[in-house]
Structure formats: structure tokens, C-alpha cells
Design goal:
Blueprint lengths: L4 H18 L14 H15 L8 E5 L7 H7 L4 E5 L3 H13 L5 E4 L3 H4 L9 E7 L5 H7 L3 E12 L11 E8 L6 E8 L8
Parallel strand pairs: 1-2, 1-4, 2-3, 4-5
Antiparallel strand pairs: 5-7, 6-7
Helix pairs in contact: 1-3, 2-3
């Protein structure tokens, strides 16, 4: 995947910082002192591939359970015009995220140390984002229904998943939009859900 010089430099800075902090607190589940291709694929390449599917009109993104910053930080580095919020409940991981944002000069990114459930009480975050991203093995329908509160009508939710199983039991206003394979070797896929405006029903 060809990268421009500035993006490549920023990604290298992020990965170096991630490697240093990962020795102190487990941010990734990988051994970054001797990074293997699967670690680079998961942490850097998958987010960059996903960024290609973000609508050109998107201006605000929120990432839930940001942890070590992937997929959100690589995605936002590839889309510097988009404002972002990184939501992480664990304090030490939030400290890392703030350091990464500072080191990468991502002045348009906010780190929120909170559980997403707590943020549902903030009216300023309701229907404020064009895109919500989350990487998790399994997300229950009730969780998706809570998370959609952060997304604008016609906005999207990006689910980073292993395998090709389509999320089931979606309840309006959420509807399945598409499944996009990311990395064949990893068996990873991006599932895109759309928040339908009121009065628009799934076909």
C-alpha cells in the first residue's frame, strides 16, 4: 500500500510510541519488540484500508474502546480533516492515547476517559458524529442500539470483525449496509451499518 511521506512518518512515530508503552501496559496483545506481519496488518494496515470506505462528507468520528489507538489513530492520520473522539474507560490507556495525540500533533482529536454508557448523558455527543468505529469480537444488538445515539442520521458504524458473519438482529434505525473484506490472511472484515433517518425503512 503506497503511503505519502507525511503519513508514513506519522505512522512510524505512532508505532514506535506504541511499542514503548506496550512494554509497560498491555495495549495490543502483540509482542511489538519483535513485530510480526500479523501485528502490523492488524494495527496499521486494516485501519488504513477501512479509511478508504469513509464517506467523503464525514467531518466527525468517535471510536469506542480505543485501547492502544488502533483502528482510530491510523484512520484519523489518513483523514486529517476529520475531528475525532477516542473513548477509553481505563485510565492508563487514556494516558497513552493523550501522549500519542500530543506526539502526533493531532490537535483535532479529543480523548475521553469514560465508559460509553456514561457519555450517553452528554447531549452534545448525541447524533454528533458521521462515523462510529469499534473493534470487538462480538457486539450485542442492545449495545449497538446504545451506540447509535452518537451517530447522525445517515451516519455509519464501522465494525471491525474476524470472519464473514453478518451482524444479526439489527433494530431500526440501524440497517446493514455492506461487508468489506480487509485482509485475506487475517480473515478480517469491515461491517458497515447505516443509521437510517426517521421514516426511512430498510428495503
Amino acid at each position: 500500500m503506497p503511503l505519502d511521506g507525511q503519513l508514513k512518518s506519522k505512522l512510524e512515530t505512532y508505532f514506535r510510541l506504541l511499542t514503548v508503552w506496550d512494554r509497560k501496559i498491555n495495549l495490543t496483545g502483540f509482542n511489538l519488540s519483535d513485530p510480526q506481519p500479523d501485528a502490523l496488518d492488524k494495527l496499521l494496515i486494516e485501519p488504513l484500508l477501512a479509511a478508504r470506505h469513509v464517506a467523503g462528507s464525514a467531518t466527525r468520528m468517535i471510536d469506542i474502546g480505543s485501547g492502544g489507538g488502533s483502528p482510530a489513530i491510523p484512520m484519523l492520520l489518513a483523514m486529517p480533516s476529520i475531528r475525532g473522539a477516542l473513548v477509553e474507560a481505563k485510565t492508563r490507556k487514556s494516558v497513552f492515547l493523550r501522549e500519542a495525540v500530543r506526539a502526533l500533533e493531532m490537535n483535532h482529536i479529543e480523548v475521553l476517559t469514560a465508559r460509553y454508557e456514561e457519555l450517553l448523558a452528554r447531549p452534545d455527543l448525541h447524533e454528533a458524529h458521521d462515523l462510529l468505529t469499534i473493534r470487538a469480537v462480538r457486539i450485542e444488538p442492545r449495545v449497538l442500539m446504545s451506540l447509535q445515539a452518537f451517530v447522525k442520521p445517515s451516519g455509519e458504524i464501522f465494525l471491525f470483525r474476524s470472519g464473514s458473519m453478518v451482524p444479526s438482529a439489527l433494530t431500526p434505525p440501524l440497517a446493514f449496509k455492506m461487508a468489506q473484506p480487509l485482509l485475506e490472511a487475517q480473515g478480517s472484515s469491515l461491517f458497515v451499518l447505516e443509521k437510517r433517518p426517521v421514516g426511512v425503512h430498510r428495503a
